[in-house]
Amino acid sequence: MHELRVIGSEGGALVVASDGGEQYRVPVDDVFHTQLRRATASTSTGRRLSPREIQAHIRSGMSAQDVAAVTGADLEYIQRFEGPVLAEREYVIDSALAVPVHTAVETDPLEGGTTFGSVIRERLHDLGASGERWASWKEQGGGWIVKLAFTAEHVEHDARWQFEPRKQQLSPLNHEAVTLSQQDDQARALIPRLRAVKFGDEPDSDSDRFDSGAFSVEPEPEPEPVRPTSRTAEIVSTGQTADLLEALRRRRGERETAGFGDPDPMGGAESAPATSSIRLIDVPLDDFPEESPTPPRQDTGPAPKQQARKGRATMPSWDEIVFGARPDDDLA
Protein backbone atom coordinates (compact mmCIF):
# COMPACT_ATOMS: atom_id res chain seq x y z
CA MET A 1 0.00 0.00 0.00
CA HIS A 2 1.36 3.37 -1.03
CA GLU A 3 1.23 6.33 1.29
CA LEU A 4 -0.13 9.59 -0.07
CA ARG A 5 0.24 13.09 1.23
CA VAL A 6 -2.13 16.01 0.82
CA ILE A 7 -0.69 18.77 -1.34
CA GLY A 8 -3.82 20.89 -1.85
CA SER A 9 -7.53 21.10 -2.62
CA GLU A 10 -9.39 21.72 -5.84
CA GLY A 11 -13.13 21.88 -6.58
CA GLY A 12 -14.33 20.20 -3.37
CA ALA A 13 -11.67 17.51 -3.50
CA LEU A 14 -8.29 16.89 -2.00
CA VAL A 15 -5.19 16.65 -4.18
CA VAL A 16 -2.74 14.06 -2.91
CA ALA A 17 0.60 12.87 -4.26
CA SER A 18 2.71 9.75 -3.91
CA ASP A 19 6.40 9.42 -3.28
CA GLY A 20 7.00 8.99 -7.01
CA GLY A 21 5.38 12.36 -7.77
CA GLU A 22 2.12 11.02 -9.11
CA GLN A 23 -0.92 13.12 -8.11
CA TYR A 24 -4.39 11.91 -7.24
CA ARG A 25 -7.74 13.59 -6.58
CA VAL A 26 -9.96 12.46 -3.61
CA PRO A 27 -13.56 13.84 -3.49
CA VAL A 28 -14.74 15.13 -0.08
CA ASP A 29 -18.20 13.55 0.45
CA ASP A 30 -20.16 11.97 3.33
CA VAL A 31 -18.15 8.78 3.22
CA PHE A 32 -14.98 10.79 3.50
CA HIS A 33 -16.33 12.71 6.54
CA THR A 34 -17.49 9.50 8.25
CA GLN A 35 -14.18 7.77 7.79
CA LEU A 36 -12.31 10.87 8.85
CA ARG A 37 -14.40 11.13 12.05
CA ARG A 38 -13.78 7.49 12.91
CA ALA A 39 -10.08 7.84 12.32
CA THR A 40 -9.95 10.96 14.48
CA ALA A 41 -11.86 9.26 17.30
CA SER A 42 -9.66 6.17 17.31
CA THR A 43 -6.55 8.33 17.22
CA SER A 44 -7.72 10.61 20.05
CA THR A 45 -8.89 7.84 22.40
CA GLY A 46 -6.14 5.43 21.62
CA ARG A 47 -8.42 2.45 22.36
CA ARG A 48 -11.56 0.78 21.02
CA LEU A 49 -14.93 0.77 22.81
CA SER A 50 -15.58 -2.20 25.01
CA PRO A 51 -18.72 -4.34 24.46
CA ARG A 52 -20.05 -3.18 27.83
CA GLU A 53 -19.84 0.48 26.82
CA ILE A 54 -21.53 -0.23 23.49
CA GLN A 55 -24.39 -2.10 25.18
CA ALA A 56 -24.81 0.71 27.73
CA HIS A 57 -25.35 3.16 24.85
CA ILE A 58 -27.82 0.79 23.14
CA ARG A 59 -29.72 0.20 26.42
CA SER A 60 -30.15 3.97 26.89
CA GLY A 61 -32.18 4.11 23.67
CA MET A 62 -29.53 4.81 21.04
CA SER A 63 -29.25 2.89 17.81
CA ALA A 64 -26.06 1.41 16.39
CA GLN A 65 -25.84 4.28 13.92
CA ASP A 66 -26.15 6.82 16.75
CA VAL A 67 -23.38 5.13 18.72
CA ALA A 68 -21.13 5.07 15.67
CA ALA A 69 -21.76 8.75 14.99
CA VAL A 70 -21.09 9.76 18.59
CA THR A 71 -18.10 7.58 19.34
CA GLY A 72 -16.61 7.32 15.87
CA ALA A 73 -16.35 3.54 16.19
CA ASP A 74 -16.92 1.18 13.29
CA LEU A 75 -20.62 0.47 12.66
CA GLU A 76 -19.99 -3.21 11.96
CA TYR A 77 -18.09 -3.52 15.20
CA ILE A 78 -20.97 -1.94 17.17
CA GLN A 79 -23.61 -4.14 15.53
CA ARG A 80 -21.83 -7.25 16.82
CA PHE A 81 -22.93 -6.38 20.40
CA GLU A 82 -26.32 -4.72 19.98
CA GLY A 83 -28.40 -7.92 19.60
CA PRO A 84 -28.71 -8.94 23.27
CA VAL A 85 -29.59 -5.39 24.34
CA LEU A 86 -32.29 -5.02 21.68
CA ALA A 87 -33.82 -8.29 22.87
CA GLU A 88 -33.80 -6.97 26.44
CA ARG A 89 -35.64 -3.83 25.39
CA GLU A 90 -38.30 -5.87 23.59
CA TYR A 91 -38.72 -8.07 26.65
CA VAL A 92 -39.35 -4.99 28.80
CA ILE A 93 -42.11 -3.87 26.41
CA ASP A 94 -43.79 -7.28 26.49
CA SER A 95 -43.59 -7.34 30.29
CA ALA A 96 -45.19 -3.91 30.57
CA LEU A 97 -48.06 -4.83 28.22
CA ALA A 98 -48.70 -8.00 30.24
CA VAL A 99 -49.09 -6.20 33.59
CA PRO A 100 -52.56 -7.01 35.01
CA VAL A 101 -54.82 -4.02 35.66
CA HIS A 102 -58.32 -3.55 37.07
CA THR A 103 -60.91 -1.42 35.32
CA ALA A 104 -64.24 -0.05 36.52
CA VAL A 105 -66.22 -2.68 34.58
CA GLU A 106 -64.86 -6.21 34.44
CA THR A 107 -66.07 -8.32 31.53
CA ASP A 108 -65.74 -11.66 33.29
CA PRO A 109 -64.84 -11.92 37.00
CA LEU A 110 -63.71 -15.56 36.50
CA GLU A 111 -60.97 -14.58 34.09
CA GLY A 112 -57.46 -13.79 35.22
CA GLY A 113 -57.88 -10.05 34.67
CA THR A 114 -57.28 -7.42 32.04
CA THR A 115 -53.78 -6.56 30.93
CA PHE A 116 -52.34 -3.12 30.39
CA GLY A 117 -51.74 -3.75 26.69
CA SER A 118 -55.33 -4.86 25.97
CA VAL A 119 -56.79 -1.81 27.73
CA ILE A 120 -54.52 0.62 25.87
CA ARG A 121 -55.21 -0.99 22.49
CA GLU A 122 -58.96 -0.88 23.14
CA ARG A 123 -58.79 2.80 23.92
CA LEU A 124 -56.65 3.45 20.85
CA HIS A 125 -59.36 1.70 18.82
CA ASP A 126 -62.01 3.97 20.34
CA LEU A 127 -59.94 6.98 19.39
CA GLY A 128 -59.49 5.78 15.83
CA ALA A 129 -55.73 5.97 16.33
CA SER A 130 -53.18 4.52 13.94
CA GLY A 131 -49.42 4.05 13.73
CA GLU A 132 -49.02 2.33 17.11
CA ARG A 133 -45.30 2.17 17.97
CA TRP A 134 -43.81 0.93 21.24
CA ALA A 135 -40.27 1.54 22.50
CA SER A 136 -38.36 1.20 25.75
CA TRP A 137 -35.06 2.30 27.22
CA LYS A 138 -33.36 2.62 30.57
CA GLU A 139 -32.52 6.00 32.02
CA GLN A 140 -29.02 6.47 33.34
CA GLY A 141 -29.23 5.91 37.09
CA GLY A 142 -33.00 5.34 36.89
CA GLY A 143 -35.65 2.88 35.81
CA TRP A 144 -37.14 1.75 32.53
CA ILE A 145 -39.27 4.02 30.35
CA VAL A 146 -42.00 2.62 28.08
CA LYS A 147 -43.09 4.85 25.20
CA LEU A 148 -46.17 4.67 22.96
CA ALA A 149 -46.36 6.79 19.82
CA PHE A 150 -49.61 6.98 17.82
CA THR A 151 -51.59 9.26 15.53
CA ALA A 152 -55.17 10.40 16.27
CA GLU A 153 -57.10 12.94 14.19
CA HIS A 154 -53.91 13.74 12.26
CA VAL A 155 -52.15 14.65 15.51
CA GLU A 156 -49.02 12.87 16.73
CA HIS A 157 -49.09 11.78 20.37
CA ASP A 158 -46.35 10.49 22.65
CA ALA A 159 -47.33 8.71 25.88
CA ARG A 160 -44.72 7.61 28.39
CA TRP A 161 -44.83 5.47 31.52
CA GLN A 162 -42.20 4.55 34.07
CA PHE A 163 -42.03 0.77 34.47
CA GLU A 164 -40.65 -1.24 37.38
CA PRO A 165 -40.32 -4.88 36.20
CA ARG A 166 -39.84 -6.34 39.68
CA LYS A 167 -42.93 -4.67 41.14
CA GLN A 168 -44.95 -4.92 37.90
CA GLN A 169 -45.92 -1.27 38.31
CA LEU A 170 -46.56 1.42 35.69
CA SER A 171 -46.67 5.17 36.44
CA PRO A 172 -47.74 7.77 33.83
CA LEU A 173 -45.20 10.51 33.14
CA ASN A 174 -47.02 12.94 30.81
CA HIS A 175 -50.50 14.13 29.88
CA GLU A 176 -51.11 11.56 27.14
CA ALA A 177 -50.20 8.70 29.47
CA VAL A 178 -52.46 10.05 32.22
CA THR A 179 -55.37 10.39 29.78
CA LEU A 180 -55.00 6.84 28.46
CA SER A 181 -54.73 5.50 32.02
CA GLN A 182 -57.98 7.10 33.19
CA GLN A 183 -61.55 5.83 32.82
CA ASP A 184 -62.91 9.06 31.31
CA ASP A 185 -63.51 9.91 27.68
CA GLN A 186 -60.08 9.93 26.05
CA ALA A 187 -61.17 11.67 22.87
CA ARG A 188 -62.29 14.76 24.72
CA ALA A 189 -59.09 14.95 26.77
CA LEU A 190 -56.59 14.22 24.00
CA ILE A 191 -58.28 16.13 21.17
CA PRO A 192 -60.09 19.22 22.44
CA ARG A 193 -63.05 20.36 20.37
CA LEU A 194 -63.09 24.05 19.49
CA ARG A 195 -66.26 26.04 18.75
CA ALA A 196 -66.25 28.89 16.28
CA VAL A 197 -67.20 32.23 17.83
CA LYS A 198 -68.27 35.22 15.78
CA PHE A 199 -66.18 38.32 16.13
CA GLY A 200 -67.76 40.92 18.39
CA ASP A 201 -70.21 38.54 20.09
CA GLU A 202 -70.59 39.26 23.76
CA PRO A 203 -72.73 37.54 26.37
CA ASP A 204 -76.07 39.24 26.95
CA SER A 205 -76.25 38.52 30.66
CA ASP A 206 -74.26 37.04 33.47
CA SER A 207 -76.06 33.72 32.98
CA ASP A 208 -73.97 33.08 29.83
CA ARG A 209 -70.75 33.05 31.79
CA PHE A 210 -68.99 29.81 32.53
CA ASP A 211 -69.26 30.31 36.27
CA SER A 212 -73.00 31.25 36.23
CA GLY A 213 -72.46 33.59 39.12
CA ALA A 214 -70.66 31.03 41.25
CA PHE A 215 -68.07 33.61 42.23
CA SER A 216 -70.53 36.45 42.93
CA VAL A 217 -70.09 37.96 46.36
CA GLU A 218 -72.92 39.59 48.27
CA PRO A 219 -72.09 43.13 49.41
CA GLU A 220 -71.49 43.46 53.11
CA PRO A 221 -73.71 45.88 55.09
CA GLU A 222 -72.14 49.24 55.77
CA PRO A 223 -71.20 49.75 59.40
CA GLU A 224 -73.21 52.35 61.33
CA PRO A 225 -71.34 55.61 61.90
CA VAL A 226 -70.03 56.06 65.42
CA ARG A 227 -71.68 59.06 67.02
CA PRO A 228 -69.24 61.26 68.94
CA THR A 229 -69.89 61.65 72.66
CA SER A 230 -71.30 65.05 73.51
CA ARG A 231 -68.87 67.19 75.47
CA THR A 232 -71.77 69.17 76.94
CA ALA A 233 -73.32 66.04 78.47
CA GLU A 234 -70.05 65.23 80.22
CA ILE A 235 -69.81 68.79 81.57
CA VAL A 236 -73.42 68.75 82.84
CA SER A 237 -72.88 65.39 84.55
CA THR A 238 -69.72 66.70 86.22
CA GLY A 239 -71.51 69.85 87.35
CA GLN A 240 -74.36 67.89 88.91
CA THR A 241 -71.89 65.76 90.87
CA ALA A 242 -70.10 68.88 92.15
CA ASP A 243 -73.40 70.44 93.28
CA LEU A 244 -74.35 67.26 95.14
CA LEU A 245 -70.99 67.20 96.95
CA GLU A 246 -71.31 70.87 97.88
CA ALA A 247 -74.79 70.29 99.32
CA LEU A 248 -73.51 67.39 101.41
CA ARG A 249 -70.70 69.57 102.76
CA ARG A 250 -73.18 72.26 103.76
CA ARG A 251 -75.45 69.81 105.55
CA ARG A 252 -72.53 68.34 107.43
CA GLY A 253 -71.27 71.78 108.49
CA GLU A 254 -74.70 72.76 109.83
CA ARG A 255 -74.94 69.56 111.88
CA GLU A 256 -71.49 70.03 113.38
CA THR A 257 -72.19 73.67 114.24
CA ALA A 258 -75.48 72.79 115.92
CA GLY A 259 -73.86 70.03 117.98
CA PHE A 260 -71.09 72.38 119.17
CA GLY A 261 -73.59 74.83 120.82
CA ASP A 262 -75.16 72.19 123.14
CA PRO A 263 -74.20 72.43 126.86
CA ASP A 264 -71.65 70.03 128.22
CA PRO A 265 -73.47 67.26 130.12
CA MET A 266 -70.54 66.85 132.57
CA GLY A 267 -70.65 70.55 133.55
CA GLY A 268 -67.53 72.66 134.10
CA ALA A 269 -65.24 70.55 131.97
CA GLU A 270 -63.42 72.26 129.17
CA SER A 271 -64.54 71.12 125.77
CA ALA A 272 -61.97 69.70 123.46
CA PRO A 273 -61.11 71.95 120.54
CA ALA A 274 -63.06 71.10 117.44
CA THR A 275 -61.04 70.09 114.44
CA SER A 276 -63.87 70.06 111.87
CA SER A 277 -64.77 73.10 109.78
CA ILE A 278 -67.49 75.56 110.97
CA ARG A 279 -69.75 77.29 108.51
CA LEU A 280 -70.45 80.92 109.37
CA ILE A 281 -73.87 82.41 108.59
CA ASP A 282 -74.42 86.14 108.12
CA VAL A 283 -77.52 87.22 110.06
CA PRO A 284 -78.85 90.80 109.51
CA LEU A 285 -79.04 92.78 112.79
CA ASP A 286 -80.96 95.79 111.54
CA ASP A 287 -84.15 94.80 113.40
CA PHE A 288 -82.48 94.55 116.81
CA PRO A 289 -82.02 97.68 119.07
CA GLU A 290 -78.58 99.00 119.57
CA GLU A 291 -77.02 98.16 122.93
CA SER A 292 -74.76 100.31 124.98
CA PRO A 293 -71.20 99.24 125.00
CA THR A 294 -70.41 97.04 127.92
CA PRO A 295 -67.88 98.32 130.41
CA PRO A 296 -64.63 96.46 130.57
CA ARG A 297 -64.56 93.67 133.07
CA GLN A 298 -62.21 93.69 136.02
CA ASP A 299 -59.66 90.99 136.24
CA THR A 300 -60.52 89.04 139.43
CA GLY A 301 -57.86 86.48 139.08
CA PRO A 302 -56.66 83.75 136.85
CA ALA A 303 -59.06 80.96 136.13
CA PRO A 304 -56.95 78.09 134.94
CA LYS A 305 -59.84 75.92 133.97
CA GLN A 306 -61.90 78.57 132.16
CA GLN A 307 -59.05 80.68 130.80
CA ALA A 308 -58.34 79.92 127.16
CA ARG A 309 -54.99 78.74 126.13
CA LYS A 310 -52.46 81.52 125.62
CA GLY A 311 -52.24 82.67 122.09
CA ARG A 312 -55.60 81.10 121.05
CA ALA A 313 -58.98 82.88 121.14
CA THR A 314 -61.92 81.23 122.90
CA MET A 315 -64.56 79.64 120.75
CA PRO A 316 -67.75 81.84 120.62
CA SER A 317 -71.02 80.28 121.72
CA TRP A 318 -74.21 80.04 119.70
CA ASP A 319 -75.75 83.09 121.50
CA GLU A 320 -72.74 85.19 120.64
CA ILE A 321 -73.01 84.22 117.02
CA VAL A 322 -76.76 84.88 116.81
CA PHE A 323 -77.29 87.84 119.18
CA GLY A 324 -73.83 89.31 119.24
CA ALA A 325 -73.58 89.31 123.10
CA ARG A 326 -72.03 87.07 125.72
CA PRO A 327 -74.19 85.31 128.31
CA ASP A 328 -72.27 87.00 131.18
CA ASP A 329 -73.27 90.43 129.90
CA ASP A 330 -76.98 89.57 130.13
CA LEU A 331 -76.63 88.50 133.77
CA ALA A 332 -74.78 91.68 134.65
Automatic annotation (TrEMBL):
<feature type="compositionally biased region" description="Basic and acidic residues">
    <location>
        <begin position="198"/>
        <end position="211"/>
    </location>
</feature>
<dbReference type="Pfam" id="PF11268">
    <property type="entry name" value="DUF3071"/>
</dbReference>
<feature type="region of interest" description="Disordered">
    <location>
        <begin position="198"/>
        <end position="234"/>
    </location>
</feature>
<protein>
    <recommendedName>
        <fullName>DUF3071 domain-containing protein</fullName>
    </recommendedName>
</protein>
<feature type="region of interest" description="Disordered">
    <location>
        <begin position="252"/>
        <end position="332"/>
    </location>
</feature>
<dbReference type="InterPro" id="IPR021421">
    <property type="entry name" value="DUF3071"/>
</dbReference>
<feature type="domain" description="DUF3071">
    <location>
        <begin position="1"/>
        <end position="163"/>
    </location>
</feature>
<dbReference type="InterPro" id="IPR047682">
    <property type="entry name" value="SepH-like"/>
</dbReference>
